[in-house]
Amino acid sequence: MASDRSESGSQCNGSEYDPKQKLWYGERLPSVLNPEAGIGRIILDSLARSPDKVIQINADTGAKVTCGEMRLKIIRVAIHLRKLGYTKGDFVSVACGNNELVVPVFMGCWVLGLAMNPLAPVFAKDDFVHMMSQTQSRLVFCDPSNRKIVQEAVREAIKDPKVQLYVMDDEGGSVEGCRSASELLEPIEGEGEFRAEYLGDATKLLAMVLCSSGTTGLPKGVCLSQAHFVDGMVFSTEVSDGPIFNFSSLFWATGIFGVLTSLFYGRPRVLTNNSFNPDLLLNIIEKHRIENLFTAPSYISALLAHPRLSRFDLSSVRHWHAGGAMVVEELIVQLQSHLPNGHARSIYGSSEIGFITRTDAHCLSNSVGPLATNVVCRIVDEAGRP
Predict the structure, then answer these.
(1) Across 266-277, average pLDDT
(2) Are the CB atoms for 260 and 207 separated by under 8 Å?
(3) Do 205 and 144 sit in the same domain of this protein?
(4) Which is nearest to 331 in space by CA: 344, 312, 313?
(5) In a domain, 254, yes or no
(6) pLDDT digits over 38-65, tens only?
(7) What is the per-residue pLDDT for 363?
(8) Is 263 a domain residue?
(9) Per-residue confidence band for 377, with pLDDT thresholds at 50, 70 and 90
(10) Which pLDDT does position 295 carry in this prediction?
(11) 212, 219 Cβ separation under 8 angstroms
(12) Any idea what the CATH number is for the domain that residue 58 is in?
């Protein structure tokens, strides 16, 4: 197929066109990781390679977690949950922001083959009820700030009376019907000898029910396999040791890919549980020497209007991605002018596919840019004809 396209096809702006099949192709780049291995096994193996390297930094508190510490936390979560009777295929709802417990809990669940349904921590009760009614999760995690509304939604939506609600703090156990997620990080027998089990065909193993944006009504659940997240890594061609950052919680695909980029490739991930403001973002970039980041275009607009933008050192930035809403060409061009060593790009994607196209400051005017790596598409009319 590759040779046929190179002989009869044409290239445009980084994408290749096959006129016979009327298909556009992005760059073909097989994953350096094995999707068949499963996310849990890959992550635990990756973290074991550099146990003393810092993998997570809390910008709010300054707390740091090394690869070895993160690996142990994930293993403890997995063993505790297994002892509690949770098994492959069980659903887990996660309604949490970016705190230090989220990643070990999320990954510990994936090690066991549990199916995750990340929910926006700011959802209204009806949104929680809508999704929980479909997944009938056996396990639910929430923040202290939304505990009450999540607890009400669980009672209304989930039929199993044994469903367990964990709160992401040390006080959850003091609330009736709740437990503290920190219990899952306590030392447990077997943690030193733990090996992640092979869970079967990762292309058929449900990893996540990812919510659509909800712009056309209530959120819709998109089913994604574990192999999808290994083979579809958007940042896999940008491997370096540098820190990464975004404000996205794990409700958003960009939040998931940010975490996986960190864990797969050993890149420090900086997190904050605070909402965006221009000074916060600029301070994080400068203090932690951020190399890769993703933001909404509205955040970039606010930064460009910041009276002290030129005083901040953005020389560490290598790639700045914008997406999640319409990104005008001028915004990328203006941002690019502030990145002496980096590239500004807009990206477009969907919950079902992941990242589809990318556009940088040098793309043709009004172009959506080239297709992302391993993406194939066909342009059709309203009747579905190419």
Answers:
(1) 95
(2) no
(3) yes
(4) 344
(5) no
(6) 999 999 999 999 999 999 999 999 999 9
(7) 61
(8) no
(9) confident
(10) 93
(11) yes
(12) 3.40.50.12780
What's the structural domain count of the chain?
3
CB-side neighbour CA atoms (13 Å) of 351: 18
Q: Against a cut of 0.85, is the pTM above it?
A: yes
Q: 160: burial class by Cβ within 10 Å (0-12, 13-18, 19+)?
A: exposed
CA 254, distance to chain mean position in Å, is 4
Enter the DSSP assignment of 371: B
Same-domain pairing of 164 and 199? yes
| Residue 173 or residue 284, greater confidence | 284
Position 5 pLDDT exceeds 50 = no
**Token pair of 372 as six digits:** 């992302």
Q: Among candidates 250, 253, 252, 257, which has minimal Cα distance to 236?
A: 257
Question: Pairing mode, if any, of strands 269-271 and 54-58?
Answer: parallel
What are the distances in angstroms from CA 98 to CA 94, 222, 352, 362?
A: 11, 22, 23, 34
Domain extent, residue 78, equals 35-227
Q: How far apart are CA 85 and CA 218, in angstroms?
A: 32
Q: What are phi and psi of 124, to 5 degrees?
A: -75, 165
What does the alpha-carbon distance between residue 97 and residue 105 come to, in Å, rounded to a whole number? 13
CA distance 175 to 24: 55
User: Which stretch of DSSP H or E encloses residue 108?
Assistant: helix 102-111
Tell me the per-residue pLDDT of 88-129, one tens digit each, with 9 for 90 and over.
999 999 999 999 999 999 999 999 999 999 999 999 999 999
Q: Cβ neighbours of residue 233 under 8 Å, at least 6 residues apart? A: 31, 33, 257, 260, 261, 264
C-alpha–C-alpha distance, residues 90 and 92, integer Å: 7
**Secondary structure of residue 325 in the 3-state scheme:** coil
Exposure string for 236-252, b = 16+ CB within 10 A, e = fewer: bebeeebbbbbbbbbbb
